[in-house]
Amino acid sequence: MFIDSHCHLTSLNRNRRQEVLQEAAQGYRLIDSSIDPNSSLASIALSDHFPFVYTALGFHPFSCDIFSQEIISTYQTLIDEHKGIIAIGEVGLDYKASLGVSVQEDVFSRFIRLAKGRNLPLCIHNRFEGTYVLDILDKFYSNYETVVFHCFSYGVDFLKRIVEGGGNVSFSLNVLRAKEDLRLALLECPLENMLLETDSPYMKIKGQESTPLDIERVYNYVSEIKNISLDELKMGILKNSERIFKF
Ligand SMILES: [Zn+2]
What global pTM score does this model have? Predict the structure, then answer.
C-alpha cells in the first residue's frame, strides 16, 4: 500500500486524473488537499465517489483575500456531511501571499480552531521565516501529535522541534533532489513521525507535472536512504497514517 498524504487531484487535467484514479484503485490511498471553497467541493466529489481518496479540507494562505467567517461555517457543515473529510489543510503561512502575516495568522488560527473543534488533524503549509508557525501552534496545542508539516523542506533543528513535540513530518518529491540539510533531516526523522507525499501536480519532475503515482519514487528513495526495506517502510507509513487520519 502506497499512501500519498498530500496531493491535488483536482488540479490535474481530467483525462490524466481519470488514468491516475484507475491505476490508484489498487494499492494506493490518496489524501487530496484543497486550497479554497471551490477546490474543496471538487475534492469532496472525488472522496465521496472513490473509496481510496480522502479529502483534507484546506484554505491556502494565497486564498486569504477571499476569506470570510461564512467559509468556516460551510466547512463545518461539509465535515458533518462527508465521511471522506479526514483532515483540515493545507492551511498556514506563506511569505509570498498577497496579504500580510497578521491577516494570515488570524485566518490560520480560525482553521486551527475548526480542526480542534471537529477533532481533525491539521496539515500545515509553512513557507515562512524561522519557527513562527510553531509559536502560533503553541497557542492552541500542548503537543503536535495531530499536526502534519506538509512538504517539509527544512533542516535538522526544525525537525527536532517538531518530533520532540510528537508531530508528524511529511516528506515530498523534493527529497529526490534534496539539499544536504533536508537530506540530513530525512535521515534524522524517526519512522514513527513520518509521512510521504507527492504534492502533485505542483511538484515537478524534470519539468513535468507529477501525479500521485509518483509517490512510489519517494518510498523507494526513503527506503534506500534510511536503509529499511520497502515493506517495513510501507507498514510504518500505513500505521502512522491510520493513527493520524483514522482511516
Ligand atoms: Zn499542496
Answer: 0.97
Pairing assessment for the beta strands 85-94 and 2-7 based on DSSP bridges: unpaired
Tell me how far the alpha carbon of residue 7 lies from the centroid of ligand 1, in angstroms: 6
Distance in Å, CA 90 to ligand 1 centroid: 7
d(CA 29, ligand 1 centre) in Å: 16
Q: How far is the CA of 232 from the centre of ligand 1 (A)?
A: 26
What contacts 24+ positions apart, CB below 8 Å, involve 201-209?
A: 201/8, 201/11, 201/12, 202/8, 202/11, 203/151, 203/172, 203/173, 203/174, 205/173, 205/176, 209/12, 209/16
Q: How far apart are CA 58 and CA 115, in angstroms?
A: 11
Region of residue 115 (phi > 0: left; psi between -120 and 50: alpha; otherwise: beta) = alpha
Taking alpha carbons only, the member of 114, 138, 145, 111 closest to residue 35 is 111
pLDDT in tens, 84-110: 999 999 999 999 999 999 999 999 999
Return d(Cα 234, Cα 240) in angstroms, integer.
10
Ligand 1 is an ion; its neighbours by CB within 5 Å are 199
Dist CA 166 CA 54 (whole Å): 24
* pLDDT tens-digit readout, 11-41: 999 999 999 999 999 999 999 999 999 999 9
